[in-house]
Amino acid sequence: MPPIPFSRLLDVEGLNITVKTADKAAGTAPAGKAKGKSKLKGEGTEVLSDAKLKLQAGQRYALLGRNGSGKSTLLKAIAEKLIPGIPEQTRISILQQTRADDANTDMPPGEGAHEKSSSAATGRTVLEEVIERATAKHDVEQEIRARKLKHERLLKRLFLLDKDARLRSGARGLQARKALIAGEKAVAESTELLEQAEEAIGADSLQTETQEAIDMLAELQLQVEPTRLTEVEAKARKILTGLGFTEAYMAKPDTDILILDEPTNFLDLLGIIWLQRYLQSLQDTPEPPTLILVSHDRDFISLCTDLMILKDKQITYFHGDLPSYESAQADRKLWLTKMKEAQNRQRAHMQKSITNNIKAGKANDDENKLRQAKSRQKRLDDRMGLNVSARGGRFKLNRDLEGYHYSARDEIEVPQDERGITIVLPEPTDLRFPGALISLENASFRYGPASRTKPQPHVLENITLSVGMGDRIGILGLNGAGKSTLVKLLVSETNPSKGAVNTHPRLKLGYYSQHAVEELQARGRGDPSLTALTLLSKEVEGELDEGQVRGLLGSLGLPGRLSSDVPVAKLSGGQLVRLQLSRLLWKHPHCLILDEVTTHLDYETVTALREALRYWEGAVVLVSHDRWFMRGAVENVVEDEGDDGSDAEEEDEEEQKRRRVVYRLKARELVVLKNGVTQFEETLEKRVKKLLA
Q: Where are the coiled-coil regions (predicted)?
């Protein structure tokens, strides 16, 4: 029987994934178990229920879903091939949520946590790890003895057989268990051969195994051919250099499915644009990989051809980009609303006619009236509802109501607006007298004490910046340009080496550090009983009662038991961002300084925060590599607002009082970008073209 050709199309029906809790006391959870066609019952959190996973070869999918919906769990199940229907020969590469300079940091599990780099466990550099995975060079050199290599291959096959037997049920499960028994027998025989003394090996066995060794050695030599090693190393270096890292991860060049979970979290805009263009260029390769991408950066995910929406334990698909999807959803809701309203009017008219016919028929003993009423009632029951079938065509009663048990069309159900994420920023307290909130006057900064013989170079030089009430100030720059140093000067964590920093005497400042999540995780590990409610309650020092504290946490997405019962150490990255924001906002600050606040947040929360920042009365200083977020929050560029313009004149008056400016920090100086984010983006696009060339 000829082998079945390998297909790069995945189409899995009836997918169920539940994350089971192995140790409730410790709160740990193993990898999710995935099953097809059968229901998975037991304790745990259900991520998918009777869902469909369909991936077209070469397409680029953006996986969308709120924090905690199970995106990372689904990606891990795909990567580890725990889902029946993913062939074992499928080559899958995954980049999980990782920070390049934290490869050895032992973070707790959970969405948004950094995971330990695979290279940390082996002691190899990331470049060596990329080459190692692409060539299996280390294993080859260590396994030149035929028996040992054969035994290792049998063990790998046994692992796959065991996993297959655990996942399958019914007839396929029985067949898989038989294959497992045969595999266990082969491994046992191989173990005996490994333990056999050399003098006990017979001449026939020696001749057979020698030929096997020659064949395997020839195969292995092809794998470690110097030319191939050179090509792999060149590709690895190009990828790592382009990302701007000395140590970073990128997929094997021969992967079938490439999974990237928040790859832009710690890249600067040059790295983001480079990665965006590189992933798009893969489409021109002979067999482009299927890409599954999770990112909160709406501009970055514009490279995707399709959307996968994880919601209500189901996966829905949309061919197109996110703005088109949101527009289509709004159009469909409007269409269904109008259809339902029209049919409700028609239904009311028919029901009135039926009632009148029944009343007249009974009063006059008129059978025709009664039959007419019955006929109209049947039409009312069977012919009202959706005017289109499940396939999208016009509904036909004799075709679309198959089976005797069907009696009516589906009711028109207008999708209810999901409880949206709304962030309300409290209004600042009265300053009592005018003046700049923060001002830098010819400020310069260098690390270390000044030395006459060998002075340290300045990181920042002659920076003049004023932040007034209502201002929106964006700061752009590549990693290492000095953005965080500038922020530390603004929040008085660092004093300038030269120049002055002045603040308003009544200033209340809210500072979100790019390391806020890591700092909260450290506090959570130090005090396992610490919850969001207890932490914030201690900090407000009686100025807010428990109800007000709960209300603030709830308004930012930490309601009820999530704030009072779940330890801080167990909160996801996105939930920790919300907690940190609550620690800033309860004070009613006049100025918010936000350094990479969108990292770890899902795109819906990013959207809500951008909207909240647009017209807040206080000042905002924003450092971010998220172009879409910066355009909306600082430059007030918002696509498809959909308002009727009734408040346009009032907003124009308020807008005239507001200063919006985007700066670029380069070569120690702060430069105004007249065309804002677009100007910076165009400059980097030119650099990326040179890199890719």
A: 325-383
d(C-alpha 304, C-alpha 541), whole Å: 48
Rounded to the nearest integer, the mean pLDDT of the chain is 75
Tally of CB atoms within 10 A around 523:
13
pLDDT at 204: 57
Encode pLDDT of 505-541 as tens digits.
999 999 999 899 999 999 999 999 999 999 999 999 8
Do 231 and 346 lie in one domain? The reply is no
The residues pairing with 186 across neighbouring beta strands, listed in sequence order, are none
In a domain, 138, yes or no: yes
- Tokens, residue 615: 């017209």
Distance, in Å, from the CA atom of 578 to the CA atom of 581, rounded to the nearest integer, reads 5
Domain boundary among 248, 268, 296: 248
Long-range contact set of residues 403-409: C-beta below 8 Å, sequence gap at least 24: 407/381, 407/382, 408/381, 408/382, 408/384, 409/382, 409/383, 409/384, 409/385
Q: How far is CA 166 from the centre of its chain?
A: 29
Count of residues in the chain? 693
As given in the structure block, the two tokens for residue 126 are 């990331």
Q: Are residues 351 and 240 both part of a single domain?
A: no
CA distance 117 to 113: 12
Residue located via tokens 């396994």: 143
**Who wins on pLDDT, 396 or 469?**
469
Are residues 128 and 244 both part of a single domain?
yes
Indicate the pTM of the whole model: 0.66
Check residue 618 and report its DSSP letter. S
Could you report the per-residue pLDDT of 371-408, keeping only the tens digit for each? 877 777 777 666 555 554 444 444 444 444 443 334 44
Residue 602 buriedness (CB in 10 A; 0-12 / 13-18 / 19+): buried
Q: 373, 400, 427 — which closes off a domain?
A: 400
Retrieve residue 225's tokens: 């051919």
Q: Which residues, listed in sequence order, are joined to residue 60 by a DSSP beta bridge? A: 291
Radius of gyration of the chain (CA): 31
Residue 499 CB partners (closer than 8 Å, separation 6+) = 440, 441, 442, 443, 444, 462, 463
- Distance in angstroms (rounded) separating the CA atoms of residues 688 and 280: 13
Give the three-state DSSP class for 238.
helix
* pLDDT band per the 50, 70, 90 thresholds, residue 683: very high
How do beta strands 45-55 and 314-319 pair? unpaired
Helices (H) and strands (E) in the chain, counts: 22, 18
Banded pLDDT at 271 (limits 50, 70, 90): confident
Where residue 9 falls among pLDDT bands split at 50, 70, 90? Answer: confident
Question: Could you report how far apart the first and last alpha carbons of the chain are, in Å?
Answer: 47
Residue 474 CA: distances (Å) to CA of 85, 211, 636, 687, 692 = 48, 69, 12, 22, 28
Token pair for residue 107?
């973070």
Q: Is residue 389, in this structure, part of any structural domain at all?
A: yes
d(CA 342, CA 434) in angstroms, rounded, equals 57
Instruction: Measure Cα distances from 257 to 10, 60, 277, 316, 364 in Å.
Output: 10, 10, 18, 19, 75
Give yes or no for a contact between 47 and 70, defined as CB atoms under 8 angstroms apart.
yes
Amino acid 388: pLDDT: 47
